[in-house]
Design goal:
It contains four helices and ten strands, in the order E-E-E-H-H-E-E-E-E-E-H-E-H-E. With 201 residues, the protein is an alpha+beta fold. The two termini are 22 Å apart.
């Protein structure tokens, strides 16, 4: 998939092979999460639209957009020595890209933020461990994990400055080491703000 972008003030279009789509995260995305991908994609909601874009990512062999989630509220931590450069800027704040495991709950610093918990449940529904059937070619199937393809932007000023050493141990845990439980409900729609195009700087 390629984006046709117009030149300002002209009728000429140019092809952009790499472009960005960003969604502003809302806590309601965690409510009544569908247990099946087809139910999620039927939702008239931002998370339903995100599921559609993810499907395009793992079905298209041509360049597809970069997908981002922007969270204005989540707190986050940095390991000692890490430096984060501004990726995106709006009228209110600078934003940096971090790993999903670096998010923290606003009240309990050792728990992941709500946006990371959303990605856990989103991955349970949309990850595809055997996406490509390559066995006939003598190749191993390739797995598709949404966390590898959706990036996270957070406000730079939401960094938790009182970083504790025990947070390092939590950051080093892999997704497979953490037991995750989700309560799913069927076809209820989630709220949240609409997806919008954003260009990273």
């Amino acid at each position: 998939m390629k984006l046709l972008a117009p030149f300002l003030g002209t009728r000429t279009f140019t092809i952009k092979e790499r472009w960005n789509i960003a969604f502003k995260f809302d806590h309601s995305w965690n409510n009544a999460f569908p247990s099946r991908e087809n139910r999620l994609k039927r939702e008239n909601s931002p998370r339903g639209l995100l599921a559609h874009w993810v499907e395009i990512l793992y079905e298209e062999s041509v360049p597809a957009p970069n997908l981002w989630i922007i969270d204005d509220d989540v707190r986050w931590v940095a390991r000692p020595g890490q430096v984060f450069e501004t990726v995106y800027r709006d009228c209110e704040a600078d934003y940096v890209q971090i790993n999903w495991e670096a998010t923290r709950d606003n009240k309990i610093s050792l728990l992941k933020g709500a946006v990371a918990r959303f990605m856990d449940s989103f991955g349970l529904v949309c990850d595809n461990e055997d996406m490509y059937d390559l066995q006939e070619l003598g190749l191993e199937p390739m797995a598709f994990r949404v966390k590898d393809h959706i990036k996270l932007l957070v406000r730079k000023d939401n960094e938790m400055q009182d970083y504790m050493e025990e947070d390092n141990e939590t950051d080093n845990e892999t997704e497979d080491d953490t037991e995750i439980e989700f309560e799913y409900e069927s076809d209820d729609l989630s709220g949240g703000s609409d997806g919008s195009d954003q260009e990273g700087e």
